Amino acid sequence: MYVSSMFFLLLGSSTSLIMSLMSLYSGVGYFIEWEIVSTNSSSVVMTLILDWMSLMFLGFVMLISSMVLYYSGGYMEGDPNMNRFIYLVLMFVVSMVALIISPNLISILLGWDGLGLVSYCLVIYYQNEKSGAAGMLTALSNRVGDVAILLAISLMSVYGGWNFVFYLNSICGNESLGMLCFLVMLAAMTKSAQIPFSAWLPAAMAAPTPVSALVHSSTLVTAGVYLLVRFEPAMHNSVYSQGLLLLGGTTMFMAGLGANFEYDLKKIIALSTLSQLGVMMSILGFGLPDLAFFHLLSHALFKALLFMCAGVIIHSAKDYQDIRMMGGLSKFMPLTTFYMNLANLALCGMPFMAGFYSKDVILEMAFMGTINYISFLMYVFATGLTVCYTARLVYYSITGGFNMGSLHTVNDESGLLTSPMFLLALGAVSAGSMLSWLIVPYPYMICLSSFYKSLVLIVCMLGAWVGYVFNLGSFLYVLNSFKYYKSVVFSGSMWFMPFLSTQNMIFNFLVNGFSIYKMGDQGWFENKGGYNLHGSLMKSSGLLEKMQDNSIKLYMITFLFWAVLSIIIM
């Protein structure tokens, strides 16, 4: 089944990419409206937009999904619920397709909610306590964005329609509809896990690795970025775009810092996704949606490849995810480590790899622009931290000493796992240059001093050196031994965001609820309610029973009572 689904998606991907190139060459897009039901003066209309942007993104989503489905055939081999898993992945892809080709907020909500629902089913796929908690955190975090979309739909009703592509310029100039931009930005921040909604992204690693490869490359987390790319003209140079720049930069810095203290292989890659999402959001806030979309596409290819490599390593390494339990894998898995190094180099922005063409232009445009010192420093530090945690990951897992013990079956023999990586590896090497020719046909005018021009390279080299020093062990020992311990915990726990999003939010409610339960249900309500009523009824029932017991003594007392009462009344 996964083979037929893979071929179907691959065919759809090639068709979509060809149509995207034709649309890009001719400058023509198609806006399709289909009236489903018309009653009196009301009509239900399904709207589709097929322009170069939606078709190109659609092609990338289908390409990566086809590779992930073929990869799942090897990774999920032996799973008793294999067909259910394939159906869930296909539903996930269909939801993303519905979101991509919808220019209408109501039809976007169908794909938006579909992604949230199916992601919950995939995160809890293994049905244990950890995955259940992660799935609930993911679902509830995304529900905030769903409510924001619903409120945005109600606000857009003043236009008499919900095809927002027609009203972007009027929304930009209308101060009374500023709340609409805020709601759309809030929805995008929850879906793309920006601060303060970042906790669910690493938690969603409880899902199977093929799902992680799909979610973190081109589907769930990119939905918010894509929506803001479409909505950017309405927020251009507004206070919301400035807030997006600051929050995106903070997310980028926080995720890069947290990845340097993490030992879970999948969580390190998840935090790198969060860091790159911060890059996309911040450059959107800077007012460059084409560069954000460019980085979205180039990032999708090498991030899917990186997760696939991580899945092969986990699958072979006795299902360990702790990078300290690996080491020296390049000797046993040369093909997988080769692909993983390609993906890591593209992630770091190595010249002439896919990530370089988008990331380098983004950083140089940010350095040339009028950003404040805080945003500038966040860009610089986040770039260095990316190389730092990548060097650390390579040191612990691929190079170094072998730490897996005597019983291991680490190899590259499964063709189902390694074959899909080849196409994505080609994309990680060459897609950046091709996309730059297509999406950015006219070069940006970048005028920087030699210091700022070489700053990215200097920061990357410095980050690699720090990553090496960080792995020596003595540096960590010093940090853990003295007063810096709390700062290490703060940095390695995503600034306590998982705690703030879970236990801290419900703690007061649970404590107060227990107090009300003790004082209310088991206290006053019990004493003056059911228990007291039961005692009163029992006493009354006992009195009536005595009165109806045919006792001569009771009859004589009653007769005497009525006789005395009659004399008094007379």
TrEMBL record:
It is found in: Mitochondrion inner membrane. GO terms for cellular component: mitochondrial inner membrane. It is an enzyme of class 7 (translocase). It catalyses: a ubiquinone + NADH + 5 H(+)(in) = a ubiquinol + NAD(+) + 4 H(+)(out). The chain crosses the membrane at residues 7-32, 52-73, 85-102, 147-165, 177-201, 243-261, 268-288, 300-317, 338-358, 370-395, 416-439, 451-479, 488-511, 552-569. GO terms for molecular function: NADH dehydrogenase (ubiquinone) activity; NADH dehydrogenase activity. Residues 389-570 form the NADH dehydrogenase subunit 5 C-terminal domain. Core subunit of the mitochondrial membrane respiratory chain NADH dehydrogenase (Complex I) that is believed to belong to the minimal assembly required for catalysis. Complex I functions in the transfer of electrons from NADH to the respiratory chain. The immediate electron acceptor for the enzyme is believed to be ubiquinone. Its EC number is 7.1.1.2. InterPro entries: NADH_DH_su5_C, ND/Mrp_TM, NU5C-like, Proton_antipo_N. Coiled coil: none annotated. Its main location: mitochondrion. This is NADH-ubiquinone oxidoreductase chain 5. One of its GO terms (biological process) is ATP synthesis coupled electron transport. Keywords: Electron transport, Membrane, Mitochondrion, Mitochondrion inner membrane, NAD, Respiratory chain, Translocase, Transmembrane, Transmembrane helix, Transport, Ubiquinone. It is a multi-pass membrane protein. Belongs to the complex I subunit 5 family. The keyword S-adenosyl-L-methionine does not apply. Residues 38-85 form the NADH-Ubiquinone oxidoreductase (complex I) chain 5 N-terminal domain. Residues 102-386 form the NADH:quinone oxidoreductase/Mrp antiporter transmembrane domain. The lineage of its organism: Eukaryota, Metazoa, Ecdysozoa, Arthropoda, Crustacea.
